[in-house]
Amino acid sequence: MATTEQMMQSELMRIVTAGSVDDGKSTLIGRLLYDTKQIMADQLQHIEETSQRRGDGYVNLALLTDGLRAEREQGITIDVAYRSFVTPRRRFQLADAPGHVQYTRNMVTGASTAEAMVILVDARLGVIEQTRRHSYIGAMLAIPHIVVAVNKMDLVEFSEERFREVEADLKALGAQVDLHDLKAIPISALSGDNVVDRTDAMPWYDGGTLLEHLEGVELAADRNVTDRRFPVQWVVRPMTDEHHDYRGYAGQVASGIWRPGDEVVVLPSGSRTRVASVDTLDGQLDEAFPPQSVTIRLEDNIDVSRGDMLADPQNAPTVARELTARVCWMGEKPLEARAKLSVKHTTRATRAIVEELVSVVDIHTLEEREAPVQLELNDLAVVRLRLAEPLAVDPFARNQVTGSFILIDEATNDTVGAGMVISAE
Question: Shortest CA distance to 268 belongs to which of 150, 347, 205?
């Protein structure tokens, strides 16, 4: 087991798992926890006793997560359960998202911050409708790394021919929906083949295990270091004798590399200046990059407030009053054209009106069709919004931080939608 010091120093990777009801998702998560030695002795004893009492004939690792699932089905907890585990190379936060079509909003929530998605496929069934839908969501959210765990290989006699058939179908699906970095790995979660430890049962497979693949994914390459974007979260003015003239702008670097001397445009006002320094509690930095939290001081004393965005004037986001965006509707109440909502984008909020429901995805065929009169819960649609105040946005495909937003019902303050910018005017 990794030490606490290793945990603190290793890099965090967020994963979301997706799969149909009987694909073995619970068993896979249990296997990852068991084989990386994350289970306490008393937990293991309880699972062994329960497995024996149920007559399973083996240690049923699915029981590690099925308790959470039972709670969720009773509505006791939220629909996405999070599990953490750590290896000497990396820390992992695993979001276990429900697979049913009626929980699309929960799937989107769990996947929205993931760097990788693990989609489970039953080797006997291959690519089914759920696989297509989960792949579509992975592509829609531009998740950088997609791993398909072709599970239950033991039930197809560890057949290379069957795996290659499923792999070919997965590649075709990946090309159709534009999946990033797609990798298929043959596994048996029940017996642990190719999950954490390599197996002798599939000598024809010369790739790494599921865990080896996840440990080896290069996360730094996924970050946008080209487009300098810095949403201002807080204006820092200590007003002490020592720092009476200090004025800085605190927040998290959304993208790009920030250095003293860089030119800056403040949006939406359009004022220009340069970076005087990049500060932290530990002192000044030569450069800052995502997702560091820093305070940026500017050379000129110009008007900058919370919700403004600092950006590269030679490569600035669009200051938009109209957005076309793909939206996952999460509200129990249907969405109709002309509806009024609040839009929360980075550190800025404004009101908006729904100009048009453009199209909706047929979740079964993944084809776009003409939008209905209203959007129902879990619909994935293209919507046009008119904003009361301008927002500095990028297309989601280019910049996930400045290209995403949430929709809020002003009457209830509930989050009712998640949006990804397609284009802006």
Answer: 347
247 CB-near residues (< 8 Å, 6+ apart): 235, 236, 237, 297, 298, 301
Topology agreement, domain 4-222 and domain 229-311: no
pLDDT tens digits, residue range 192-228?
899 999 999 999 999 999 999 999 998 877 788 899 9
HSE-up of residue 61 (Cα within 13 Å, Cβ side): 21
Average pLDDT over residues 161-184: 94
Q: H/E element holding 46?
A: helix 41-54
pLDDT one-digit tens code per residue, 58-73: 555 555 565 555 544 4
Which one-letter DSSP state was computed for residue 57?
S
- Dihedral angle over CA of 141, 142, 143, 144, nearest 10: -170
SS3 377: coil
- Dist CA 407 CA 411 (whole Å): 12
> In CATH, what number does 318-424 get?
2.40.30.10
What is d(CA 195, CA 25) in angstroms, rounded to the nearest whole number?
12
For residue 34, give the nearest of 159, 175, 195 by alpha carbon.
195
Domain 4-222 top-level CATH class? alpha beta
Tens digits of residue pLDDT in 60-118: 555 556 555 554 444 433 456 778 888 888 999 888 877 666 677 778 877 888 899 99
Q: What is the DSSP letter of 155?
A: G
Residue extents of the structural domains in the chain: 4-222, 229-311, 318-424
Homologous superfamily (CATH) of 229-311 is: Translation factors (2.40.30.10)
Q: What percent of the chain has pLDDT over 70?
A: 86
